[in-house]
Fold these 2 entries.
Entry 1:
Amino acid sequence: MQRIGVFVCWCGSNIAATVDVAAVAEAAKLEPAVAFATDYQYMCSESGQSMIKDAVKEHNLTGIVIASCSPRMHETTFRKTAQAAGLNPYMVEIANLREQCSWVHKNKEEATEKAIVLMRTAVAKLTLNQPLIAGESSVTKRALVIGGGIAGIQTALDIADAGYEVDIVEKKPTIGGKMAQLDKTFPTLDCAACILTPKMVDVATNDKITIYSYSEVEEVKGFVGNFTAKIRRKARYVDEELCTGCGACTEKCPSKKNPNEFNMGLDNRTAIYIPFAQAVPKVPVIDAKNCIKFKTGKCGLCATVCPSNAIKYDQEDTFVEENYGAIVVATGFNPIKLDEFGELGYGQIPDVITSLEYERLMNAAGPTKGHVLRPSDGKKPKKIVFVQCVGSRGQSCREKGYCSKICCMYTAKHAILTKDHYPEMDVDVFYIDVRTPGKNYDEFYRRAVEEYDVNYIKGQVGKIYEENGKVMVQGSDMLGNKQLTVEADLVVLATAIEPDETARSIGTMLTASMDTNDFFTEAHAKLRPVESPTAGIYLSGVCQGPKDVPETVSQAGAAASKVIGLLAKDKLVGNPCVAGSNPLLCNGCGQCANVCPYGAISYVEEEVRGPGVREVRRYAVVNEAVCQGCGACTVTCPSGAMDLKGFTNRQIMAEVDAICK
Amino acid sequence: MQVNENKEFRPRIVAFCCNWCSYVGADLAGSSRMEYPADVKIIRVPCSCRVNPMFILRAFERGADGVILCGCHPGDCHYSTGNYYARRRMTMLFSMLDYLGIEKERTRVEWVSAAEGAKFAATMNEFIDTVKNLGENRKLRDLRCKE
Amino acid sequence: MSLSINYKAEAENILKISGVNPKKCMKCGKCSGACPAYDSMEYHPHQFVSMVQDGDLEKLMKSDAVFKCLSCFACIERCPRSVAPGKLVEAVRLAVIRKQGMNRLKPEDIPCMLEEELPQQAIVSAFRKYSK
């Protein structure tokens, strides 16, 4: 039998003015489980708390009900008080007499009556309380960053800076991501490579950071503080340890006609290749699909010329298993495919290109050495038309519903750079809205219009076709209320961006929630923007939503600081109010695991012992470190095996009974 | 416990409020001093999806006249999907209760965010009025429990 | 033609029968950018959307733009917001024909007008265009 103490707080006159606190305390004394009841002006004050402690000792109480303000206010305070008095902190219940009684009612008689019911409800619940002990789990002091673009690089550097080990897993042969492909960055127009490659070198030379390039995360198990990841290191057929990155193999390779992914297929590369000059690691990779040795068995030239015998044609995929405390998702984005946009002619008309392709055309290290030349005939265009919002902000199935955010600014950048290199060139931009919030962004766009004389046309392009070697762009001029047909030499489509195609499978692997566009969902849109709702998973960069470089870098830093905060802990103290299943009742049906948003439930087949039972059964087991205590499983469970500590079925039933008494 | 001697009907209302939105909304109604009748008593649950249909049946069995379940707005659930489960379960339960003779107006699911103190108070006022108009619930209740 | 047409009510009716929600339009002009009959139309697809939304129907109903529309549905196909201006043109045309109180084309007239090369789509479009 519990011995419960009831402490009714006046809260000055906040409660006492509307509720007859003495009557509540008197009524409490009539409850069978109540061994002691009193009222006091300020329960949360020093003297109020010592009164509670004394009463616990004097009356040998097993639990306390505080009838006071909202539990959101002082539940923690009184839990600490209980702990100081030698009670389990979870043997405390709060009856909310202030926010939900005295402050919302005027009639003292009615309010007192309700206060008594609330007090009885709390007593009824407390009678069934069990002492709870929060579980503790260890923290592996190592972080995994999935994706090696600017987001992943920055996160890894920041975490390593704090002294923790970080692994970067990048599926491409080199880190650097999309930013490595960019020419200049808005609004300052500093060259992307000049600011990115030093960071890539920092990553490579940092002894806290391990880069797994050309690798993919295959499997993730575990929970916050204790993840285990299996990483597939795809065979690159070149020994990373032996290779010196001299590049002799790439020069001699006879298979030279393979589209160069790094230059968006605008030129060709060899079958053994280093994506770009500043690649990290600077180790070539053999594209087995196009390699003559792999296709015919003859050739082997690269192995012959390699001075360090690093070429290994028999290399196979290997696996690394590593433990991590935290995982950062930085999977980034890709431009969408434009196959569905037949009216814009991309793919049919060679001189219609995407912005990322244009970025490569402008880049001094790109296929044209930085000269803007038409892909069709290699001539310098006289007129370039930029089309914005291609695939963004749409509602049909081929389009993305969101604004891709970066296009307005990079189109302005392209326009400015084009006019800067070639003042004689004519530049038109078709836009729906120009969106330039950000420091020095609107000024930048205005410069394009005012200083560089870029012709911005409000309206969308309806059709692009070829005529007499020209690209005809037919579109609307909404402000001039007319239809235009512009004769262009080159058309650049500001293509919408979408999360990388691996994001969905990684999200599933991590049980991290995603929205319908495959962007990762943050734990709170405003207050926890870099954390996934799944504990221990953090978000960095465009995988969470469209972002430009400065925003990505700041989010990467924020994610790193959250990771550091987690790794700095030696023990994680869990929430003891978690679900638990009774093996005697559980029939292993699997419904609870279906509704669990955290993937906290798994099934084991073990011997179950109970009265009259001794057999091997499949039953649900809750990982207490992962469970957040929502209780969805408890209601789904058809056999009533699942229950939530601190909010058990019996406790809530007792509350219902007390209210309806 | 009947206080009023003139036997004015005082309904018994059980409100389940989720810890993250609706309970905070109810607290906000309090700190903004928005009045609603004392007939409603709140039970705090971690999430609206913690509310087992059994609890609601139990309430009616024990003589409740109305039950209201408040949770975060769809999409705002602290546990990301809990309120969707609650919504589905309650849709099923309420139509069954309706079939059993407990009028649909006696049961309700309402989304109240932590900022909607006014909505909480208004909802409670309106719900109590509706239940008052329906009168005492006589269906399902265990006769041992009342009177 | 009747003298008193309540254009506001007519506009609402047109929105109802066409199922078009003009609020979804973000005035990008892609419909008019794609329109092959642009030059011959007095009012253009994007104007149909804003004019019907404003209840500014008199001009539209009196203009022959409704009959210049080819019903090629390029605007419907291309509209990024699924506003479907072509459906509005169709609905305004229907409203005009109904006000005239007569069908310009009866089903029984069609067989004798048929030609081998005439595509089915054109017959259906013509029928929709000229009958109520």
Entry 2:
Amino acid sequence: MTVRIQKRNQDTKMVPVPSESIIPERDLGKLPVLECKHLGIDFGGLTAVEDFNLTIGKTEIAGLIGPNGAGKTTVFNLLTKVYEPTRGTVMINGIDTHGMDIVQASKLGIARTFQNIRLFSKMSVEDNVRIGLHNQIKYNMFSGILRLPSYWKREKQQHEKALELLSIFGMQDMADMQAGSLPYGAQRRLEIVRALATNPSLLLLDEPAAGMNPHETQELMDNIIKIRDQFQIAVLLIEHDMNLVMGICEGICVLNYGKIIAKGTAEDIQSNPVVIEAYLGKQKEAQA
Amino acid sequence: MNSKKRKLIYNAVTFGIVILAFLLCNIFYSDMSRSLRGQLIPICCWIVMAVSLNLVIGISGELSLGHAGFMSIGAFSGIVVSGWLLNGFQMENEILRLIIAIAAGAVIAGIAGVLIGIPVLRLRGDYLAIVTLAFGEIIRNVLNCVYVSADGASLNFGFIDPNLPGTLLLNGPNGAVGVKKIATFTAGFILIIITLIVVLNLINSRTGRAIMATRDNRIAAESVGINVTKYKMIAFVTSAALAGMAGALYGLNYSTLVPAKFKFDQSINVLVFVVLGGIGNTLGSIISATVLTILPELLRSFSNYRMLIYAVLLILMMLLTNTPAAKAFFINLQGHWKKKALRKSIEAEQGKGGTQS
């Protein structure tokens, strides 16, 4: 495996990587929401991600694509501090996340969904969103036990906010249902709502359209843009559905064997020979 | 609000049953057999134990096997505080002494919960269960070596060394002897109500939801910014403090109490209450704790076959609550709610024009 990675590294050296930011011409605001520099992680002797550089500005929608096993989800886990990177830095809103844990990263404004849905399936839809609001609308344990006025006030706020967030996807009617009994697509949408409830500045979506039909995917695309505009947040998404990626991502980053092999707009990526090679194999090999 | 209404009804029914049972017990007190009367306070204690253990097992999702340890800490600190107040301060008011003893039991057991929780809650699953079991045994063995005496207003502590001045309140392996019985059934009832208020209000609050989130999906809970260790700790310490209260009441109901009373099998006994009542089901815990405490006493007339029948009944109850046929019956009872919810979801999906994949 390591041999193959080294070989791949030699190949990619010939390809000039465009720039730090996916879309250089876009105004990223004063401070990028996310800034990764030379990010890398090793598992034992295996280098899963290496020299990952990415800058995402405010209100940018970026895509992270690549063949299976390229390290996309590992990048997400590095950004959300599930793993501590072996090399390099991750800056969220200009703050270095070195040594932080998942909870601290979440409080900095990074929220995510999961490839395999991780809802609190035994609880109601509304409670799932309320758990997302955990750090937004607070009261302490004793006012909860003693039912002090602050409990009623904050509970009401949580209820209203949860319904407001659910209404983004038109799910306010399902608020009372058990999250685990929802249809698959609705579970994915609920996960996004829960992530939004944490008031993030960067939303990471891990295959949001997996298992959705074309109609639902189109709806999801509209909703992602709507969320971006409404909440003024940046979105980074992993997706295999190329219609979605090419349709809404302003910048795309292609990962293979843990390294970025190409960055650019949808047009750049579609015509990039290295990307085509990574997905379909070399032309010579195909002929042989 | 469907689910909110259901929770409210559930809580109201739980409180209602407890209050009704208390009133019935008071009305028919004179008709009760002597052994049953003697069981009333222990039943209250075991209900509090079961409900508090349910907080750890059902709500925070960690299997704790050392619950009797916290009970014994509560029991002996309650006895010591009560004896100290009587000997040192001549406090004759039994009710006040009982309240202070129970509060002391809760606080000391809570502190023990924090100290034990720090190392234990770093573990998960089976490892956590084994370590809590070990701590339960450690507590019992340490209490076997502790001597406490009251000399006037001062408390003297001795470890292994029994030569202490004043009246001996705690006598190592011989436990507490000559305890003044001050526990009352009313106190037990109030304790159950306090426990129910704490547990049920905790579950239906921000803290409770965070605890349940760590149970259902640890990674997702962390990703929305919930400090998993903190909330597991809250559940564990609350449960320990409630067990301490139950222990203090239990200790002050007997004239003698030895640390060997709180062995591992008592922890398992409480676990049986919780499992049989339904994990996470508070009302179930109350009912099973009551029935399973009375049952061995009712079976006393069979003396030789008592534990055999008890075991068979336990197995039958577990089968009844776990066979598909019995489950189907219970689900049919809930069917009304489920159908309504399902219809609502279908309508909502159709309204959106999306189809299930």
